[in-house]
Structure formats: C-alpha cells, structure tokens
Amino acid sequence: MMDNKNNDVTVVQETSSDAATSIKESSSMQTKRVKFLNKIKFDKWKGWIYLLPALALLAIFTVWPIINTVRVAFLDNYNSLGNIGGEKYEFGFNNFVTVFTTELPKGGNFKNALINTLLVCFITVPLSTLLALLIAVALNSIKPLQKTFQTIFFLPYVTNSIAIGMVFAAIFDVVGPFEKTHLVESWGFVNNVLMKLGLEPINWIDGVGQEIFTTSYWPKLFVLCIYIIWNALPFKILILLGGLQSVNKQYYEAAMIDSTPRWRVFTKITIPLLSPMLAYVIITGFIGGFKEYSSIIGIFGDTMADGQLFTMVGYIYATLPQAQYGEASAAALILFMIIFIVTMINLYVSKKTTHY
C-alpha cells in the first residue's frame, strides 16, 4: 500500500512539474510572440519615423508653396502686404486675364514669353538630342582616350551657366556683360571672323526693338539656341553613352555576320535599344527648356534684350519686384500645366515607341 501511495505521489509531482514547465514555456512563447508583434509594428512605422524630418521640410518648403501658389493665382486683389487696404480677397480669374493682356514695365509680355519658350524648346531639344546621340555613338567607337573625351564634353555641365553666358556674349558681341571692360575688341570673335571674310558684322546681342519675329530678334534667338544646345549636350551624351555601353554586343556581331549596312544597324538596333534613354533625355530636355532663364541673364543681362527674349520663367521673375504675386502665381500655374501636358504626351509616345 505504501509503495502505491509513493508511486501516486511521484506521478502527481511529475505531472505538476510537467504542467509548470508547460506553463512556463507557454508564457515564454507568448512573451516572444508579443515582442515579435511589437517589433513588426515598430518596423512598419520605423521608416516613416526616420523620414519624418525630411517629410516635414518637404511639406514646409515644397508642398505648402505649391498649394499657396494655386491659392494666390485665383485670389484677386492679392498684394505683398496682405489685406491691409481693406479690400476683401475674391476668388476669380483676373490674374490670368492680366497675365495675357498686360505689358511689363521693362517691356515684354506673357504671350511673347510663351512663344519664346515654345520656340526654344522645340528647336533646342531635338537638335541637342540628335547631336548628343551622334557624339555618344562616336565616343563609344573610340576606345583610346574615351574617358578623356568624356571629361572634356562633360566640363560645360559643371561650369556656372552665368559665366558661360558671359563668355558667349563676348564671343558674339561686346554689348553685354563685357561691355567697356577692354576684354574684347570693337566686335566679338564671331563678328571679327565675318569681317575678315568680307561680310558685314551682325548685332547678335543688342538689336533694337521689343517685338518678336523682327530682324533684330532672330540673331538673339540664334545665339540663345546655340548656347542652350551646347550646354545641354554633356548630360545627354553621358546618359546615351552609358546606354550604348550596356547594349549586348551580340546584336552587333550578328549584324556584322549578315553584312548589315551601318545606317541600318544604327536605325534598327542602336536607336530601338537606346529608346528608354532617348525618352528620358527628351522629357528632361523639354522640362529644362520650359524653365530656361539663367542662360538668358548671362548672355543678355537682366533686361533680357529689352523684353524681346522673355521666357515664361523670366516673366515670372520680372513680376516679383512690382509685388505682382497674383500674376506671378497665375503664370507659374500656366507653366506647370504646359510642362505637365507636354510630359504626359512624351510619356504616351514613349510607351508606344520604347523597347525595354
């Protein structure tokens, strides 16, 4: 009987011990599970917590200015001092009407600025893209000194645009930032060459008149387009050259075996394989062209050739000294919509023509 009792006690003790161990393990597993779930929750929000300072700065200096620009564009009677005069702000389209109907004090108007911007974009973007493509193909075929030529072509991209604009002003004419500095002769380098060839010098920089499409307008536009194309080449060459170097060489080897003409290799292999990079440089080229401003200041000064070469961004800056913030906001909103529409069209076309 005693042995049976002892056995029963032992069994009970073992059972109790197993139960306690099981409870401890269960409790430990529950604790680990809670910690794991808490860690998942923290990891889920950890990225946002780390991004919070950057998001706050983005909201203050980017998002709010965009929202406020849209708001101010549709507020009539808006001025730099707020509603001190007692007039109530009214929602309306007067700012947009003023933008299209009013001349600026220094000359120039928004319609001319819009035409200039469109001309600059649709002249410089195709030409700079084509030249960049040809130069990139040439550089890709030159193995010796390739890096040296890449560096030479990329130098303008890291040079101050105002400084380059001043150099262009000196090359084409003395009337500009170098006037009366004795850094150049009576005419710029280009006009000196023209005169040595027996041709008449051209007033590239300081033609008289504020109207566009006049005889004084086209030389200025020519100089501006040459500068923009030259300044846009380095970035486009770099992108397209990188794309060329990533193309599988087997395509060219197969074309060589079939004795395919070079022009056909270029049009049927090179361009289709480069189409993603071409789409990128075209889209960014149009965006940059619509925002063109500093190059004009560098070449023609702050008068922008007496308003003859106002671009849309130049028009916006010209309204700020007169505290015309409503008109500036309206012009900025119009510029945004044009860039957005052109970008969407480019993206749509690139989807149809791009080969990934």
Name the features.
single chain, 356 residues, mainly alpha, MetI-like fold, 2 domains, two-stranded antiparallel ribbon, 12 helices, 71% helix, flat
Q: What is the general shape?
A: flat
Total E-strand runs: 2
User: What is the second-level CATH architecture of the largest domain?
Assistant: Orthogonal Bundle
Total helix count? 12
Total tally of structural domains: 2
Distance between the termini: 88 Å
Instruction: Describe the main β-sheet briefly.
Output: 2 strands, antiparallel
The CATH homologous superfamily name of the largest domain equals MetI-like
- Class by helix and strand content? mainly alpha
CATH class assignment of the largest domain: Mainly Alpha
List the strand order in the largest sheet: 1-2
CA-based gyration radius: 33 Å
H/E element sequence: HEEHHHHHHHHHHH
Strand content: under 5%
Portion in helices: over 70%
Kindly identify the CATH topology of the largest domain: MetI-like fold
Give the overall average pLDDT: 78
